[in-house]
Automatic annotation (TrEMBL):
Cofactors: pyridoxal 5'-phosphate
One of the Pfam families matching this protein, by short name: Pyridoxal_deC
Protein name: sphinganine-1-phosphate aldolase
UniProt EC number: 4.1.2.27
Record keywords, A-Z: Lyase, Pyridoxal phosphate
Taxonomic source organism: Solanum tuberosum
Length: 538
């Protein structure tokens, strides 16, 4: 049955055909395709502006255009290489092996290793963070964990039935760490679980991956976004790149804490998680964990707390009477926590723990493979095989110290930190960044170039961390620093005075590089510089 065509439609068709008949058929074919292309280009531009901001987008476009000028790109690459070479310092690969020796050295290899070890810098009491165990590396706690690692160096928890000892060690390290962070409290829900990892970065990676997949299962989010304060660890940037998550970095408040209101403004239907630190790596300041937890609860999203630095200090500092705000699983809304055992837990390097509020979230961390010809396979972390010796070393560290040991260590570390903080505040040319909550003290200056001060300190054997936005330096206080507080403060005062009397770059120092990198508007160029440096380092 045919339906009659309305007269107005016939008139419209005739008018359209009459209008289009004046154009070539090829033009009529190309025009809509060209329009779609333009629309796609405009959409891409708007997306870039939305993600990077108008200023950064314009700078990137201008720099890309400048590099097209003959000779400019070559000049820029040459200058970048000069900076990379300077960053490399005295690194010399002459004599490095590139193939196996024809005849093995046998036990004599240990002699060669001892010789190489002598070339390492003197780190005892001189490094920010880095080595957290106190005393000499050939005695005491050092000796204990070295023996524990050696005893289980051949083990691998991947083989559950072969090495039940390290499987138990891991389970107990996780359980003991969870107990320190509120798992025994009613507010935690009583289901805290987790796994050991190779370090804080892997713990954060796993927490982000698990949160992404959990929120996909729970809310159907397929274009995940994550919101973090600018002070949050760079491991979140790595996670965003690895797991294809849009990352929003939000400015901190005037106290250098996460700005809850600013974070709230970025939350949308694609948000999978927000992040807080206790404390943050740059300035040692604890974010408002309770307020962030409330925000996560209201919007039903995940909330990860980075306790990689604070996990084995804050619980004990609270017992000692220090004003420590809530930071663990007793805070509603917290869904995961990362804590390094190899920092203030005084375990061997390469040991961290990632914890989850319940098993429903943690299940999304695991990878199970059913179609491999090698058999059925399931792995809890990023690594398949893992070093059982490190797990054993972590267990030995925690069991040997006990709560009383950690309490005493925390007392010494916090007291040393407060003495250093006061000593810095007593230097007129310096100021402390924010109000440090723990054992990380960041300081800057409006009088002298703080990076030049850092260079002078480096010449005296100190190894501190250079920070940016604002330009500053921090020291992460460990047991190694307890006996050298006054030595550090004297060297710092002398370094400030030296720069004040003789301002300008130190020969062989990095102040000009750090200063230039901080002011460079094209952050892509800075990123390229870092990649070139890393590529030439290995």
């Amino acid at each position: 049955m045919a339906f009659p065509i309305p007269p107005w439609l016939n008139q419209y068709r005739a008018s359209a055909n009459s209008f289009l008949s004046q154009y070539e058929p090829l033009i009529l074919l190309i025009t809509p395709l060209f329009s779609l292309l333009i629309a796609r280009i405009l959409q891409s531009i708007f997306l870039v502006i939305h993600e990077r901001g108008l200023k950064a987008t314009i700078i990137s476009f201008v720099m890309s255009a400048i590099k097209l000028v003959p000779g400019v790109k070559k000049y820029i690459d040459s200058e970048k290489q000069k900076i990379v070479d300077k960053l490399q310092g005295s690194s010399n690969r002459d004599g490095w092996r590139t193939e196996l020796p024809k005849t093995g050295l046998g036990d004599n290899v240990l002699v060669q290793m001892r010789d190489e070890k002598q070339k390492d810098v003197t780190w005892q009491g001189k490094c920010s963070g880095t080595v957290y165990i106190g005393g000499n590396e050939n005695e005491g706690h050092f000796s204990l964990i070295n023996e524990a690692c050696s005893m289980f160096a051949h083990t691998n928890p991947l083989h559950l039935s072969v090495f039940p000892s390290v499987v138990r060690f891991e389970a107990e390290v996780v359980a003991m760490t969870a107990a320190i962070l509120g798992s025994k409290e009613k507010a935690s829900g009583g289901q805290i679980c987790g796994n050991m990892t190779s370090g804080g970065t892997e713990s954060i990676l796993l927490a982000v991956k698990s949160s992404r997949d959990y929120m996909k299962a729970k809310k159907g989010i397929t274009k995940p976004e994550m919101i973090i304060p600018v002070s949050a660890h760079s491991a979140y940037d790595k996670a965003a790149q690895y797991f294809k998550i849009k990352l929003w970095r939000v400015p901190v408040d005037k106290e250098f804490r996460a700005d809850v209101k600013a974070i709230k403004r970025y939350i949308n239907n694609n948000t999978i998680m927000i992040v807080g630190s206790a404390p943050g790596f740059p300035h040692g300041i604890i974010d408002p964990i309770e307020e962030l937890g409330d925000l996560a609860s209201i919007y039903q999203i995940c909330f990860h707390v980075d306790l990689c630095l604070g996990g084995f200090v804050l619980p004990f500092a609270r017992k000692l009477g220090y004003p420590v705000p809530p930071f663990d699983f007793t805070v509603q809304g917290v869904t995961s926590i990362s804590v390094d055992v190899h920092k203030y837990g005084l375990a061997p390097k390469g040991t961290s723990v990632v914890l989850y509020r319940n098993r429903e979230i943690r299940k999304h961390q695991f990878v199970a493979v059913t179609e491999w010809t090698g058999g059925l396979y399931v792995s809890p972390t990023i690594a398949g095989s893992r070093a059982g010796g490190l797990i054993a070393g972590a267990w030995a560290a925690m069991i040997s110290l006990g709560s009383e040991g950690y309490l005493e260590n925390t007392k010494e570390i916090m007291e040393a930190s407060k003495r250093i903080q006061k000593g810095i505040q007593d230097i007129p040319e310096l100021f402390v960044i924010g109000r440090p909550d723990m054992s990380i003290i960041a300081f800057g200056s409006d009088v002298v170039d703080i990076f030049e001060v850092n260079d002078i300190l480096s010449s005296k054997g100190w190894h501190l961390n250079a920070l940016q936005r604002p330009n500053s330096v921090h020291i992460c206080v460990t047991l190694q620093h307890v006996p050298v507080v006054q030595i550090f403060l004297k060297d710092l005062r002398d370094s400030v005075q030296t720069v004040k009397e003789n301002p300008g770059p130190v020969n062989g120092g990095f102040a000009p590089i750090y200063g230039a990198a901080g002011k460079m508007p094209d952050r892509v160029m800075v990123q390229d510089l870092l990649v070139e440096f890393m590529d030439s380092s290995y």
